Amino acid sequence: TELGVERRFVPESCPRAVRPGDFVRYHYLGAFPDGTRFDSSYDRGSTFNVFVGKGQLIAGMDQALVGMCVNERRFVKIPPQLAYGSEGVPGVIPPNAVLHFDVLLIDLWNSEDEVQVQTYFKPEKCPRTVQVSDFVRYHYNGTFLDGTLFDSSHNRMRTYDTYVGIGWLIPGMDQGLLGMCVGEKRIITIPPFLAYGEDGDGKEIPGQASLVFDVVLLDLHNPKDGIAIENQLVPESCERRSQTGDFLRYHYNGTLLDGTLFDSSYSRNRTYDTYVGKGYVIAGMDEGLLGVCTGEKRRIIIPPHLGYGEEGRGKIPGSAVLVFDIHVVDFHNPSDSVSITVHYKPSNCTVLSKKGDYLKYHYNASLLDGTLLDSTHSLGKTYNIVLGSGQVVLGMDMGLQDMCVGERRTVVIPPHLGYGEDGVEGEVPGSAVLVFDIELLELVSGLPEGYMFVWNGEVSPNLFEEIDQNHDGEVLLEEFSEYIQTQVDTGKGKLAPGFDFEKIVKNMFTNQDRDGNGKVTAEEFKLKDQEAREEHDEL
């Protein structure tokens, strides 16, 4: 004669229980006391959906459902006066029948409910939150209130990408995503009237279903966004900043907004080298690399419309915000020439280096970021060259001009006057700006351009006869070499400094041996000024 309720299973967590006026979705088995079944929601493949306490149920069930939790199971005995009474239901429920119901509550909501948001992880840094019209990328697991999974972006291994607040989502999700930070994790519970309503989605989601989304936000931007720059390290001394048309060498780590690494120049052990402002890199990087100093470290945050757009590329998903942590190693402009900074010049600086002079100097060679490449000091000996003879890179030939002994200077050489795009394997990177700290220690004046040997006094009118020691009318290389050596040893003549004696003498002899037979005759033999006069006469 009384309502009987047996709670056969009660979940550990019960954040909410049924109250009169709530809407519930539940499964049930209906049987008579002898076990004969008269009805089952399971057989129909759909829950029973109804408001509680509004007279839409038999009185006993209206009472029995109050206080139930989602996923709770109750065994309910309803006497006839709280069921179908003395009339019953013809053909189904006899008069004065006691009814037994095995009830499992699946869902519960109220028409006054709002979207519920429970954040269970929030990053320490949250520089920006989701606003209306933002574009977001997120992962989610979608379940019903009883925990049954109906959808998951994780299973598809692809984020859900959408605008927020402009009607692309169900209203409850539009609300639930607002205010989220990248990296934040929250549970968004949505009543059906803010989800798929009475009809459901026609596939996985039934009508009148509350939805629970476990969401992690991976990415966030707005179509109006430009790039964002965060300066992490700016050198105290910054004499020059990059401009459009400059060529940069830089290292970078490229990550998505959630920290996922997609590329790194460090892993390749090679800088990324490119022109800036010329369209060689994505638009956001073109902009973000302007105005940097050598040695600067900065973070460049690039929205997808200035990155790889909706399609993405490689490991970069479509519509992804990109974060580049860059370190500028060096930069130059193709119009750059050699830069010279004099640190010390002796007071008696009268003899200046010029083309053809033989120089001995010390140097420290480094990259623009200070990385040491080479040093004569560590070798314990000077570097010796003939200036302007192509024994060093063109920029060094230029940088050593007009120096006096004892002078110290820094010479900065752009790559097109140094080792170019290829560099020197294992020693100098391609397209590297070079910095030389130089001290000139010795200078031997060279000969006039075009001369390998000059006389210090008057030239003998019988020069050929003096060289032709055996007076046979022919001069061999041995005779020629011995004669030149004697002139140099006695101070009567001077060879171009810095060159190999035998090579110079052989070159001079070959110039005189006009028929190439290995012998020089009197007719062939001419001094340089005689050759010049003959050429002038011919002209």
UniProtKB/TrEMBL annotation:
Protein name (database record): peptidylprolyl isomerase
Question: What Pfam families does UniProt report for this protein, alphabetically?
Answer: FKBP_C
EC numbers listed for it are 5.2.1.8
Q: Where is this region: Disordered?
A: 512-539
Q: Which PANTHER family match?
A: PEPTIDYL-PROLYL CIS-TRANS ISOMERASE FKBP9, PEPTIDYLPROLYL ISOMERASE
| Record-linked SUPFAM superfamilies | EF-hand, FKBP-like
Function of the molecule: PPIases accelerate the folding of proteins during protein synthesis.
All residue ranges annotated as the EF-hand domain in the record:
455-490, 500-535
Organism expressing this protein natively: Molothrus ater
> Where is it located?
Endoplasmic reticulum
Main location as per UniProt: endoplasmic reticulum
Top-level taxon of origin: Eukaryota
